[in-house]
Known about the structure:
heterodimer; A: mainly beta; Lipocalin; 4% helix; disordered N terminus; B: alpha+beta; Cytochrome Bc1 Complex, Chain D, domain 2; 3 domains
Amino acid sequence: MTRRSTAATVVILLAAAMSYRVQAQIGYDRLLNAAREPRNWLIYSGGYFSQRYSPLTQITPANAKNLELKWMYQAAVAGGWQTTPLVVDGVMYLTQRPNDVVALDAKTGRAFWVYRHQLDPTQIVCCGSNNRGLAILGDTIYMGTLDAHLIAIDTKSGRPVWNTRVADNKAGYSVTLAPLVVKDKAIVGVGGGEYGIRGFVAAYDARTGSEVWRFYTIPGPGEAGFDSWKPCPPDVKAYCDSEAWKHGGGSVWVTGSYDAALNQTYWGVGNAGPDWNADQRPGDNLYTDSVVALDADTGRLKWHYQFTPHDRYDYDSVQVPVLADITWRGTPVKAMVWANRNGNFYVLDRETGRFLVGKPFVKVNWMDTFDERGRPRQTVQPPGQPTWPGNQGGTNWYSPSYSPHTGLFYVSAWENYATIFGGTPVEYQEGRNFGGGQNRPLVPVPGAPSIPGLRRGPINNWTEAAATGAVLALDASSGELKWRYPMTDVTDSGILTTASDVLFTGGREGYFHAIDARSGSLLWKASLGAQIVSGPITYEVDGRQYVTAISGLSLCVFGLRE
Amino acid sequence: MTKTMSPMSAVLGLMLASAPSVAAQNPATGDYTTADIAYGGRLYDAQCATCHGANGDAVGGVNLRSGTFRHAITDQDLARVVTNGIQGTAMQAFKFDAAELAGVIAYLRNMNSFDRGSVRLGDADRGRTLFDGKGGCTRCHRVGAQGSRVAPDLSDVGAARSAGSLLRSLTDPTSQMMPINRPVRAVRRDGTVVNGRRLNEDTYTVQLIDDQEKLVSLTKSDLREYTILTVSPMPSFKDKLDPGELADVVAYLLSLKGR
C-alpha cells in the first residue's frame, strides 16, 4: 500500500465520477419481504410479523461454542440501553442515549457518522432516557425523541431531513419506541402513561413529516368505547374523576406489527391513568391494556381486545404483537401470539380479534378464569395481600420470539414475582406524576421489610424472595410449557431465534446466552459484565453471520471463530 | 512507551500550552475579510443598532467606532461580551452562531474605516438561484433534501463558517478544505478503485462516502493503494462568477443555518 498524493489524477477522476445519483436504499417492497434478505435487519422486530426470527443458519447448536467477540462499540451516556439496531447492506444504524443515531460499519464497528438531537431540557419521561430504535424507508431513517418529536435523518450523511412535533413534551408526552414504516408512512405511538396523557398512535408522511392519521387510544365523547369511561356514581365517597378519559393514559411505547394481506397494523396499549388508583376512573377504560388493530391507511379501528379491563396493577400491554400463522385445534389460523404483562399467554385471531387461548405462563391471582369471549374474571386481593404477577409483570416490553421452525414462542419471564398494591387518589396536573399508588413492590410477604427499588448494581439483592427470571418456551397454539431456562436474577432481555434453532438472549446478570431452541439446553455463554436490556439481532456481511448483544454501555458483536 | 515525559516533549507542551494565552493578550489583528465585515454590518443593523445607533455612539459613554471597549481587549473578550451580555447593564446576551459572531466582531473592529458603499451586499435568493443553477453546486453538495452527498452537506454551513471563509471556499476551495473532507482514492487488491470523501479514519480502517453515495468501510490491509488528496476537487468560482454573484452565493450560504 502506498500513501502518496497523486492529486491531479484523482481530481480528474473524482470530478468525472461526482455525478448526482440517488440510491434509494430500502423500498417498501424490501420491508415487506424482509425475510428474503436475512443478511439485513430492516425492521425493529426483524419483519412485519415481529417474530425476531432469522433464517440465517451459519451459527448452529453444534458450532455456537466457537462464537467469539468480533468488535465492540461503546456508548457515551450511561443508563439502560434498550435499542435494537437496524442493519442495511453492511451498515448498522442504532440509537444511543439520549437521542443520538450512529451509523457503523457492521463488520468492524467503525463509525460513519453520528447524529445528535438537541433535546428540549424540560422533557419529561418516567423511566430514563430510553429509546428503542429506528425505522428505515428509502434513504431515510426515522427516530422518535424523548421530547416527543419524530425526526427523519438521511442515511448517508446523518443530516436531519425533517423534524415534526408529535405531541407536547411538557405535558409528559415522549416517543421512545422505534417507529414502524408501513407503505409511505412512519407510524409512532407516545409514551407518558405515568403523566396522565391521552395516548395515541399517529402516522406521518415519510417524505414530508406531515401527519396523515391519528388514533386516540382513549376514545372521546361520541366515539366507540367512550362508554367504557363510566360516570362517577352519584353517591361515591372516594375521589372520582368525572373526566378521567381526558388523562386516561393508554401510552404506546413499543413498536407494533403489520399484516399486509389484511392491511392491519397492531399496537399494544399501555396502562390506564392513574396507574394504580382505579377507583377514580370507573369502567373498563378502553383501550388501555388492549391490542388495537388499525387500518394502515386510515388509522381506523378494526377491532380490539382488552387484556386487563379496569387495570389497577399497571399491566401495560405494550408487548410486541407477534403474528404467526399456526394451527389451532386442527385449523389453520392467522394468529396473534402474546405473553402479556398480566401473566397470561394469549392466542387471538388477528383477522377479527377473536379470543382463542388464554393461559397463565407465570403465577397469576388477579383473575381466575376467562369467559368465552376472553374477558377475565377478576379476583382483587384484599388490602395488604400480594398480587401475582407484580408491578413489572410476568413479562414486560422486551421482545419475545416465535420460531416457525420449532412452532414455539419464547418469552423472558419474571417468575414468583408479586406486589402488594395500594391505590391512592391523585388529581391530574399537567406534567406531574399521575401514578396514584402506594405500592410495596417486590415484597410478597406482608409486613416484610422493603427491598430497594428496581435498578440495582452488580449485586443481586432481590434473589428468590422477590423473583427469578427464566426463558420460557411455550407451544404457540396452546401456551403449554415445553421447556424453561431458569436464571437466578430476573431478565429484561429480548430474545432472538434462528432457523438453525439457536436462541440468543441476555439478562440482568450480564450473561449473553446461546440456547438450543428445541431443548432449552445451554450451548454457549459470555459474561459481558452489565445488564442486557435489549433484544439481540443477527445479520450477515461478506458471508459471515454476526449476532449482537448490548450490555451496559457496550454493543458487543459476535461471530464464529475463523 | 513510558509514562515519563521527555525533556523535548515537555518544552513542546509548554509552548503549546502558553500559545493561547499569548494570543489572548493580542487585541485585534486586523485580519478581517470584507465579507465578514459586511455580514457583520447587516447583523449590527438588525440586532445592535437599536441601542448602539447606526454610528455606534448612541449609548452614553460608549463609542463602538473608537475601537476601544471598556469590557473587551481581545476578540475573545468581545465574543464573550456579545454572547453573555454585561450584568447590571442594558447590554443583553445574544445568541449568535459562529459565523454571525465572526461577522459582528469583524464589523465592530472596522466600523470606523469600513466603507459600506464599496461593498455590494449579496442577496440570498439570487444566491440560491446561482447555487442550484449556474453554479451547479448541487451536483456535489446537498442542502436539506436536495443535491448530491459526495461533497460535504451544506445545510448548516452558514452557522459554522464565517462569511470570509465561505468566500474563500468559492474562490480558493483547497485553502478552506477541512482535513476530514480530503478526497481519498483506494485500490483494493483485486484492482477495484474506490473514490470518495473521508468520514472517519483509524489506524487500520477508513470510512467514506464513495462517488456513488454509498457508505463504504475499508480495511487498509486489504488495499493495494491508498491516497489522500490535499487538493480539493471543487473548482474555483473566481472566474466563473462575478464578484456580485459570489456575494450572492455567500449570502445564500450564510442563510443556511440547519434545522
